[in-house]
Amino acid sequence: MPDDSLAQLQRGLLDLDMEAALAAVHNVIAGGNQARVKEAVDVVTRSLEVVGKRFQDGEWYLAELVYAGEIAKDVMNALSPLMQSGGSPSRGTLVIGTVAGDLHDLGKNIVVNFARSAGFAVVDLGVDVSAQKFAAAVREHGPAVLGMSCLLTSTESQLAGVIDALKTQGLRDKLKVVIGGAALSERAARDVGADAFAPDAVTGVDMMKKWSAPA
Amino acid sequence: MNFKERVLTAMNHEEADRVPVMGLIMDPATVNKMLGKKPVDFVGLLQKPVLGNQIKNLLSSNRFWNNMYYGNFSAAMQAAASLGFDANWAVYALMKLTRDPQASVGWSWYDPYGRVWELAADTEGNINVNYSRALCDTEEKWEKWVEEKAPLFETMLRNTAAFHRKLVKDHGGRIYPMCYAAPGPFENSWQPIGFVNFTRLIYQKPDFVKKVIAFQTDLCLRNLEAVMKSGVEVVLGGDDLGQKTGPLLRPELVEKLYGESYRRMADLVHQRGRKFVFHSCGNIYALLDKFVEWGFDGIITMEPTAGMDLGRVRAQVGHKLVLIGNLDVSYLVVKGTRQEIEDAVRKAIGDAARGGGYILSTSHSHPLVDPVRLQWMVEAAHKYGRYPIGG
Ligand code: B1M
User: Fold this and answer.
1) Packed helices A5-14 and A34-56: angle between N→C axes, nearest 10 degrees
2) Which atom of ligand 1 is nearest to the CA of B301?
3) How much distance in Å is there from the Cα of A151 to the middle of ligand 1?
4) Closest Cα to atom 7, ligand 1: which residue?
5) Per-residue pLDDT tens digits for B215-227
6) Closest among A200, A212, A207 to A55, alpha carbons compared
7) Which domains does chain A show, CATH number per domain?
8) Which of A165, B301, B337, B344 has its CA 20 to 30 A from that of A209?
């Protein structure tokens, strides 16, 4: 009988059926085949792209996007012990947080979840993160990307503060900076000197993937 | 016509002498700036070695909290009235100061619902209080919490009634207090649990979610009753159902989980002969018809940064809902020029005020909202808001 675990995994993710997705992934793990593990990771990545498109097209709502992210997280957690022994390569590190004075975290958390599932090692600094804390984390972790979430007009100026701190410490040229959140726009990215503005989590993670793709 | 007649006429979808203007003034930074008051830096004091303990005791007492909290809203009413607003919103919240190693200042407010509110101060010492995280991330923790906090809910409801009654008594002669029974059953069900956890529970433990919503709906109905004891004719309720691009939950799911709650809230207010206005941030086009179906009388906010266009809302729901809000708080009342504010006010009035049923206001409040620009907004409303509009 053909093993349809990967198809079942994809259906689980796209039908928001956590149980089916986890049962499928346990079948894959039980098979003990490294190549299948790698394929399962690819299924997760491809399914999340579909999920993201559904959200961007207004076909899916935020709770569905969040739950798909949760299923992907649990699947990746189940797969991760096997990935370490020769599995999927990390795309590099993302340091991310919500700027000082701002406590909104729903959007940031979605970016964190999607970035992890896309293969980034994520350092999540949480909310209300000061410029010094961002800069210190960049120095410590040497990320490929720094992500900042900001939803309030009153905290927009914090973005420039973080980028200035990176410049002062000679760290700015070593990474890409992406910003996102309800108060922001492309223009804000230009004004504060970020590399990009991401209107949603999926676009943001897509940008990060492009930046981290081998030339 | 006085401010109250103006507001109530608009609420009846009739033309008053002019379009009423409502303030959403509540942030201590804005209030203190308006009244030229120097803030007491409680957060700073809390961190002082000896004094800190005394301040902690003070801040923890129900009486002190109520006085401090009332003082802020009383000042907000005063400031709004002096700027010429016809109405201003007011909401009561109860918090308990709690030692919190996760908080940057070592302390947070915990509210009776199971939410943590971060305590911070701006550079001037104005206190800032914002929801930061959930305390009941599992079913067991939630059950335990609501059982333990039963007496606190009663205190909260008593305080709510006293707060609004006093506000109406002290300020109702100068300005119309739009008394707000917040938050609603949606926010009260997800915020103590966390949005991600709550989403998981919707799919994995629907019966538990139903139980939480039923509990919060009952509490919310009691909160509405408490607010109505003040005698006001219009009551606000609300939940942030939207985000920038659309509702947080699929509209069918909102109906399934919360439809009954919202119907009961509107019914209760109607049974008491009042009108029910609902606040929601975000892009909520997909829910407007539901609001009408559930029996709401009006909506407040219509956030332009989330794509809410007043003309389009009016076209979609006609005069079935009174509309309040829509002026931008990301730029207009922060840095906008006088001309830009006049243009925006004129446009809003042109889009929604004919035939009554529109109350001009900003779409939210935050500490950078500039009182001078609010003053320009009121002046522009007086200039362009005379009925008949454009006549
Ligand atoms: C790094 O790379 C990236 C890439 C993409 C990134 C990214 C980073 N970050 C985000 N993205 C992007 O991807 C995500 C998914 O695709 C998206 O993320 P978002 O974060 O945009 O979307 C989330 C998934 C869902 N959306 C949200 O979570 C925000 C929804 C709305 C309704 C909202 C909510 C829920 C809340 N709020 Co607040 N809130 C509003 C919001 C209205 C709106 N239009 O968004 C907004 C943001 N709030 C506002 C305000 C004023 C406030 N809020 C406040 C409080 C709150 C709640 C606590 C009640 C709650 C937050 C709960 C929480 N834990 O996050 C206060 C501030 C608290 C603080 N200091 O942080 C307070 C100041 C209110 C007050 N006076 O107390 C307004 C800001 C206005 C402005 N221009 O400044 C607001 C736009 C509402 C409005 N009517 O105008 C994209 O933007």
Assistant:
1) 20
2) 88
3) 5
4) A180
5) 999 999 999 999 9
6) A200
7) 4-85 (1.10.1240.10), 92-212 (3.40.50.280)
8) A165
